[in-house]
Amino acid sequence: MSNVAPGASTASPSDHRPVGHGSLAVEVHELVKRYPKAPVDSLAGVSFQVERGEVFGFLGPNGAGKSTTIGILTTRIRSTGGRAVVAGVDVAADPVGARRVLGVVPQQNNLDRSLSVRQNLTYHASYHGVPRASRNQMADALLEQFGLADRPNGRPDDFSGGQIQRMMIARALMHAPSVLFLDEPSTGLDPAARLFLWEKIAELKAAGTTVVITTHDMDEAATLSDRVAIIDHGALLALDTPEQLVRGMQSQRTLDCTVEPGPTGDATSLGLVLGVALGALVGVRAVDQIDDASGVGLRFRIDVEGEAASFVAPVATVVADAGARLTDVRLGEPNLEDVFIHLTGRALR
Amino acid sequence: MTVPSGPVTSSPSAAQPPPVTSSLGPAARWGPWRTGMAILRRDLFVTGREFPIFLAQVILQPLFLLFVFGKVLTELGYAQAGYQDVLFPGLVALAAVLTGLQSTALPLVIEFSYSNEIEDRLLAPLPVGAVAVEKVVFAAIRGFVAALVMFPIGVWILGSIPWQASTGVAVVTMMVLGSLLGAAMGLILGTFVPPNRINVTFALVLTPLIFTGCSQYPWPSLSHLRWFQVVSAFNPMTYVSEGLRGLMVPTVPHIATWACFVVGTAYLVVLMVVGMYGFNRRALS
Known about the structure:
heterodimer; A: 349 residues; alpha/beta; Rossmann fold; Alpha-Beta Plaits; 2 domains; six-stranded mixed beta sheet; four-stranded antiparallel beta sheet; 11 helices; 14 strands; 33% helix; 26% strand; elongated; disordered N terminus; B: 285 residues; mainly alpha
């Protein structure tokens, strides 16, 4: 990888160390995946390492390569090139051994509908060879911990999305994996369910479990992760702690503006006009028009030097002169989304 | 480490979930073989819980075939008296093959597309191919049970069934082979057919399979209808029907029993190779 940000851990000559030792939970070296008939690589040589006990976040838009990476690490997708090691086990050379030491919480509900909640946990443990006495004990403890103890005999179909998500995490923990992979865990959850999930992930970290999580939600990445890898178009763009990633942009202050075209205005030409006019203001470093799916007006992110507030009046004047209306201004400390926009020129969602 | 008992709360001291470090030992010693048995146990548990429904599902069709062809047509004089003996072994074969087939094909289509249920088994510590083998073994058990149940039903409806104690072991072996053949065909259907086509595929595959499998007539008697005899020779079920017929009613003309075992086994190998290829293709990308 040539374009990894400073501070990123790249693959070291440690690739041939004896397996099962050392402090690394995940080691990925120059991982490549090209699907049959695909014109480009889904993963184009990604390298990173995850320390034991770390919560490691993969941040990127849909189709960036997050799920492909997780798929390879969890033995469901075969890599085209490179090497992936989980808890000391090479996933390509020993997929069966790798499945013993990893746990997976998928994006979609894959619970066994023919079994009760509790049986989902106990049968999963039996597949992993956990003795009967301890699997019953564990199932009860995990159901309690994940707030599912009141209906252990219910069928998964009768539960909410948040509860299903918790069941899948509890199930994945039944065989005490060294590394737990969560693929987009909070997608589709309501805010309360999301907070509960975050709390549980923090508890897992406190208990020493290594957690690898993918998300396209920058709050989730920033809140949960010790380190964040930003991935887009199959390449790793940056890898560091959320604080360090943001600190790299600390000299910048931003104004996040939403502009509505006037009654006769055309959004496309207005975007071009404002891009030029705002960029011409003294003290403005860069103007990015953000492709925002929510689609109310045009959104601009303006990077400025000095105090951001002093730019509100000049910006409003420029917008008014262009025949448009400034409907929202946010003065921002840079966050992970700014880092992502800075690296890719696009908003995350 | 000490394992906290009782409810685990979110306070830092109690956040240690009990399972995380307490059971690595047994998990590491567990072999893929025992994992496969655990998965089989799950399937048997689920079927066992719904056993009456399972029985109704597999018995109804052969039961009516036996009643209408074996009892009604014979009593009305449209079929000869000995026809029951020709029909019964064929219907045992039909039950074994069809139940085996349906027990792999439909669940696989659903588990690979809609429910994703198979993922938990594909992520269990055993080779991916072993998951397919477990599916086939389980489906064959269902097929065998369905075939076995035909015997008391035969006695009940027909009054007596052709049976010779001397060929009992060979009959049971042929029933097992038939169940495995059906399950292997289902493995191919379940992994190659896209979910939106499963209905039409079932209609296009099952009907010819049922009516070219020589379950209602002996294969040698088709010599007057040469093209149909040739078509029937390609159906794996033909060798199960003929094999059972030869063992249970040796006086009726039939394909040599040894040939039925050889061709049936060869078919099983080919079907399993193709089915395993299809399964691996679906399970890994």
